[in-house]
Specification:
Layout lengths: L4 E5 L4 E6 L10 H15 L6 E6 L10 H8 L3 H19 L5 E5 L3 E2 L1 H7 L3 E5 L3 E3 L13 H13 L9 E2 H7 L4 E3 L4 H12 L4 H15 L4 H15 L2 H12 L7
Amino acid sequence: MAELIEVTKDARGVATIWLAREDKHNALSAQMMQELEAEARALAQDDAVRVVVLAAQGKTFCAGGDLAWMREQFGMDPDTRRRESARIAAALGALYDLPQPLIGRVQGNAFGGGVGLAAVCDVTIGVAGLKMALTEVKLGLIPANIGPYVLARMGARSAREVFMNARVFDGDEAVRLGLLSRAVPPEALDEAVEAEITPYLSCAPGAVRDAKRLIRDLTGGVTQAEVDLAIDALAARWETIEAREGIGAFLDKRPAPWA
């Protein structure tokens, strides 16, 4: 039974996956990523589920990688670290592969892996005042495992503005960049998400799934080769002096040498 996420379903066939680690700003731990992957794969097999919403409890949507999880990786050998770091790729892939429409409800800040979660959704609604950033390069790492999904969502042109400088941007800019579909005031978020859900409920469920599949078939979607390339790129970066210095500084709560 899941402990760090919650899944609710209503009579209409709308399932909501809630990140339920509010006390840790919904940071992605190994367990949380395993639970996300498992629940996404279960929902994919549930013909009664017509729409899936990805949401989070608390003020923060997702702060990125969990500190304890990063600390554990710091002491791993390269092969073990590669397998461990691939967890987020597996969770994102399971969400991305959902046959049902996936709607993101981003009520607060999203950094690193949280941006990846926003990117795998078909439609993502966020609040205008939130903050987002691909913060990995500040640590001497790269946004690799989330990279295929971020690029598929934003396109290379927009990604170049934020992918390699860790710049913080708000909801309105996230819309311009293509990461969010819409940015709304906090009090209008649920209404905006419901406005995205409702049209699907008047459509044939099988046709909706086939239409989503056709989009992937026509555009290529994210391939396993791209995911593997990104995992390998991150594994290689972990072996650099910069990564060691950057992660060490982060864990010690001191500035990195290049800051």
